[in-house]
Amino acid sequence: MKKNLLLFFLIPGLLFVHSQERKLPLDTTVTTQHNVAINGTPLSYTATTGTQPVWDEMGKPIASLHYTYYTRNNVKNRAARPILFSFNGGPGSGSVWMHLAYTGPRILKIDDEGYPVQPYGVKENPYSVLDVTDIVYINPANTGYSRTIPETGDDVDRDKFFGINADVKYLAEWMNTFVTRNNRWRSPKYIIGESYGGTRVMGLSLALQNQQWMYLNGVIMVSPADYKVIRVGGPVSSALNLPYYTAAAWHHKALPDALQGKDLLEVLPEVEDYTINTLIPAIAKGGFIAAGERDNVAAKMAYYSGLDKKDILDHNLDVPTRFFWKNLLKQEGGYNVGRLDSRYLGIDRQLFGEGPDYSAELTSWLHSFTPAINYYLQEELKFKTDIKYNMFGPVRPWNNEDDNTRDDLRQAMAQNPYLHVLVQSGYYDGATTYFNAKYTMWQVDPSGRMKDRFDFKGYRSGHMMYLRREDLKKANDDLRDFIKRTTAIGESAKY
Question: What's this model's pTM, rounded to 2 decimal places?
Fold first, then answer.
């Protein structure tokens, strides 16, 4: 039988892998040294990027996950220094987004509002939280450079990776190995997840405690996707979109003068109150709502959303987000607005329709993120490989059954008095809206006895609020303050 030819060329700080097949080493690291100035203070740091196996019950490798680990140099007491584990979402998305645009020491070359700038590349992040915490960016199976073993075919046990509960289970086990290898058991630990990553970190909070005996100080959810609301349908799911409609319309100056003349944060509380106390009950009445009430609600929704009252009535008060993206600016330039960030504009083939032809914001982001992550890992972090970096990997079908992650977070918090939660959302995010995120936060602890351990922060941008430079600074400052406040050094874990 012909064997695969696998050659390693080792030069200090570099890894070159050449093979007849495009495969990464199962377990390897490359280390480089760097400098950055954060909030005006210079610091040096070590970047370790590599792969670490996922083991099955028999101790055999069934996947290899690619990660990047940043540690601040010259730290006298590493045990007291926090460590932050970072996940993006999808499911099926690599860790590139928050890695190269939010918390890491290097960020995209983009303009101050988040639009691509050529030539593509990266620059220093003057607001990174690396000054207060070490950071690990993790690519789940089939995302980034991570791959199952084997990569494809019937021999891949998809049930071990591609579902809410499977994802949480193997990632918790992987994190245990990482913490052990890197001697971080004594460190205060935090997990941050964006979008679907919000579901992931809610589940991990309890899995780490109950399966790995690893207790956290903080869970951070960035633009979280809660599947108990999103795509569920019904009065609550539908009504919760209205405050987002208001925010996006306000940004595009599509609201009546009485609202447009106020600051956004003056307008939103009014709309939130109307949503909870009037709109949800109205939609819940369905076809049995009185004609006069239906008309009044449609008029108010039009007032708050910038949409036409007749269009709202034609949708029986249940206006899909896709219709909003397509029609908000139909008469004002004929643009569609972005799904994940409604500040972005797109051009469709025709004005008529129920939804946009494409996601204007995502195509804009892929302009800058894809070349940047490939350049950065290969040329600055010296991780040389022919493997393709999967911005979005093959993880479908995804098993969404038995989603108890919201209650998992509640139970983890109840068991662990140290555990606090920070939720961060952009007001112009139309996919996982900021009011959905607030609603999720309210529902985690129905008793209200732990509500003092939750924080919500909103930003004048979209799903990846950190792309806007003003919000990059504000969001990192909020995260930095959260970590400093919750490390609990010297405090007993008791009620």
Answer: 0.94
Nearest-Å Rg of the Cα atoms of the chain is 23
Pairing between β-strand 106-108 and β-strand 122-124 as defined by DSSP bridges: antiparallel
The helix/strand/coil state of 335 is strand
- Cα separation, 273 vs 195, whole angstroms: 25
205 exposure class (CB count in 10 Å sphere: 0-12, 13-18, 19+): buried
- 82, two tokens: 């926090």
Query: CA-CA distance, 122 to 380, in Å (whole number)?
Result: 10
CA dihedral 398, 22, 171, 187 (to 10 degrees): -150
87-108 tens-digit pLDDT: 999 999 999 999 999 999 999 9
Q: Which of 203, 196, 222, 204 is nearest to 103 (CA)?
A: 222
For the stretch 179-186, contacts whose Cβ atoms lie closer than 8 Å and that sit 24 or more positions apart, written own/partner, are 179/83, 179/214, 181/52, 182/69, 183/78, 184/78, 184/83, 184/134, 186/79, 186/80
CB–CB of 147/24 below 8 Å?
yes
DSSP 168: H
Angle between helices 196-212 and 405-415 (to 10 degrees): 50
Q: What is the pLDDT of residues 459-477, one digit of tens each?
A: 999 999 999 999 999 999 9
The gap from C-alpha 317 to its chain's centroid, in whole angstroms, comes to: 30
Angle at 30 between CA 27 and CA 31, to 5 degrees: 135
Residue pair 428/342 in contact by the 8 Å Cβ criterion: yes
